[in-house]
Amino acid sequence: MIKVLIADDEPLLLRSLKKSIEMMDGEYSVIDTASDGKSALKKAEALNPDVIFTDIRMPIFDGLEFVGKLREKGISAKIVLISGYKEFEYAKKAITLGVEDYLVKPINPLVLQKILQKMKAELQEDIHEKQEAYLQAVIHGGKIEMEDCFFDEKTEICVLYLCFGTYISYRNIQFKINDDSSYNKEIIQILDAQNKKYWILDGKYDAPYNRLMEDAKFLEKYGCTAVVVTCNTAHFFMDMIEHELRIPFISMIRESAKEVASLHPGSVVAVLATDGTVKAGLYQRALEAEDLIPWVPDADIQKEVMYQIYDRIKKGLPCDKASWQKIEDACLEAGCSRVLLACTELSVIKNDEKLSDWYIDPMEILAKRVIEFSGKKYQ
Question: Of 147, 298, 336, 347, whose CA is between 20 and 30 Å from 153?
């Protein structure tokens, strides 16, 4: 969401402009308004807007003075000046002072729409430049300080472990989310995939496919020698993307199937995963390719699996032992030689509950393969 602050001392214009901006483009949100330069400055400091629309003529201090104080405080929001015809030349001069654009009163809706489109494109380009800078810094071992936030706190982070040359780079990047909470992650790319399982279930693949393709090409361009995705469900899209890459994609799913085949060739193997992963058939195909027999739970047991993932682990609650026993009994009754914990939340259960080696964690298999790929010995 692109955050907008409007500063103008005309109440009618404030209301009209706010309504127009939010109606024209759903990605814009007017987070606040101000009627003078002083209050606008305070709100800009507190809210950190992406775009500020400001009138030239305002009480206390005018629009240009307001812009100057913004820049003095290091606020880099994009500025659109609002002016009357008499201040037209004044507004044009302001462009040289770092103001991105201007609107002449009365506001022409078509001109406003073009400005919104332009601002959105420029903000997206700014994000790409920052991402490139961070990735370059990680690849070349530079120090990373992330002051500006270009990650939405509602975005699910898809961690990509990258292999550089003959070793794996595990570098901590600390970045702040909009709510000021801090996270430590490995080298990252964003998959805005809060509902990725629904994309799979509904058959709407374009958004995640295009985003992951863009990210994978981006990583390839900057010298990564392999790509690894630690999200099971995202493999649905990576299986389509890997053929477009010049560097290898180390598949957690395929490697897990190979591991089970080496331990129990021709056996029945349980797949415990989300509805999306199960429906996509990711593990089933990989197991069949290794001459194994995949087993997936029936509807009742699948509900127990989803309950453990979404109502327990994702909510920070421990495994429900009674529910897990139902799952385990079903796997035993099906004659499964091994059980694949094909969801990262289930990896948590294995660790917390000290589950036996009968349960195989694909994350552990992936870690082993990546270490081996890097030329190191797995211990």
Answer: 347
Contacts of 365 by beta carbon, 8 Å cutoff, 6+ apart = 252, 255, 256, 259
Query: How far is CA 325 from its chain centroid?
Result: 34
pTM score over 0.85: no
Both 74 and 114 in one domain: the answer is yes
Report how far residue 329's alpha carbon sits from residue 326's, in angstroms, rounded to the nearest whole number: 5
Domain with 66 in it: 2-123
Q: Which residue do the tokens 């961070």 mark?
A: 134
pLDDT, tens digit, for every residue of 107-166? Answer: 889 999 999 999 988 888 877 666 566 555 544 544 444 333 333 333 333 333 333 222
DSSP-assigned letters across all residues of 93-124: HHHTTT--EEEESSPPHHHHHHHHHHHHHHHH
Cα distances (angstroms) measured from residue 111 to each of 8, 60, 177: 18, 29, 33
> Contact 271/278 with Cβ under 8 angstroms?
yes
Domains in the chain: how many in total? Answer: 3
